[in-house]
Design goal:
alpha/beta, 12 helices, globular
């Protein structure tokens, strides 16, 4: 299969590209800088310089491809900046404006499959209940553009293509921004998850997220949650990190501090016991059934 990928040098993309290349797929990656060209080539793919907002240029670049995988994001550069609304503008621009252009270019070029990254934490608080793909969504101002991107994928399917949305749970891995911060805070005695200790957090390792993207090349059209098998309660998640680093069980943030963090902190305080059953029914399974299993390897790999 000929596959075109954006976001190929991101934390998930740089794992997806070698997976597909090793499996025998012919992989092309959008790469703007010389550094990205070099990185993509080392991963086993062919780089191409193309503007993701230029429909005609994209259509030309996509000619002859069977699938388009869009993993392009523009996340805030630090955890502190995540709480600044202005730091999300470029990410919103990509999701709200570029994704419809990419999907339209894929249709123009005759690409049959469009796979789009999305964000599972958009779901409303469900307490102890399991959350499937049809559960109620409750976006906040930081992530409303997710719905724009997902609508573009739905339109792609309605026009005769196979549109896939992958709603990723909270990522962790040795090259993530969040994990070193969480480890450092836990060593100081504080658990970095807002909300009640009994709230559920759903997570997935970068490696497992990458295998889910590879699986999406054969999935029927639709939305799929990408998370591990066993979401953990906030108390259990931070204690799991503490055990790995040899720290005492940390204190969790008080409720008043969560309120000071605004809508983003309140979103992450929700209880989200997200189910991966739909994706597992199509043959995918995570290497790490829960964060308890995956965190030791991720922490060991921290630079």
């Amino acid at each position: 299969m000929r596959v075109f990928i954006t976001g190929a040098t991101g934390v998930v993309g740089r794992r997806v590209v070698p997976l597909l290349a090793t499996a025998g797929h012919d992989v092309t990656c959008a790469a703007r800088s010389g550094e990205q060209h070099e990185a993509v080539t080392k991963l086993g793919a062919r780089p191409v310089d193309v503007d993701l907002f230029d429909r005609q240029a994209l259509t030309t670049a996509l000619a002859g491809h069977d699938a388009f995988i869009n993993l392009a994001t523009h996340m805030p550069r630090s955890l502190g900046r995540m709480f600044l609304r202005s730091a999300w503008r470029e990410n919103d621009h990509l999701r709200r404006d570029a994704v419809p252009i990419m999907a339209a270019a894929a249709r123009d070029a005759g690409v049959g499959r469009f796979i789009q990254e999305s964000f599972a934490q958009i779901y409303a608080d469900a307490g102890d209940g399991w959350i499937g793909e049809d559960a109620r969504m409750r976006p906040v101002r930081y992530n409303r553009s997710i719905l724009d991107a997902e609508r573009a994928v739905q339109k792609f399917s309605e026009s005769g293509g196979v549109g896939i949305v992958l709603r990723f749970a909270a990522f962790y891995g040795p090259d993530s921004q969040q994990l070193p911060f969480m480890v450092a805070l836990i060593r100081r005695g504080w658990g970095p998850l807002p909300g009640p200790p009994s709230s559920f957090v759903s997570s997935v390792s970068h490696d497992d997220a990458a295998t889910a993207v590879a699986t999406a090349l054969s999935l029927p059209a639709g939305i799929y949650n990408v998370t591990d098998n066993e979401p953990l309660r906030h108390r259990d998640f931070v204690d799991a990190i503490a055990r790995v680093v040899g720290a005492s069980p940390p204190r969790l943030f008080p409720a008043w501090l969560t309120q000071l963090g605004g809508s983003l902190a309140r979103m992450f305080s929700r209880s989200q016991r997200i189910s991966n059953m739909k994706l597992r029914e199509h043959g995918w399974s995570p290497r790490y059934p829960s964060a308890r299993d995956g965190l030791p390897a991720a922490i060991a790999g921290l630079a």
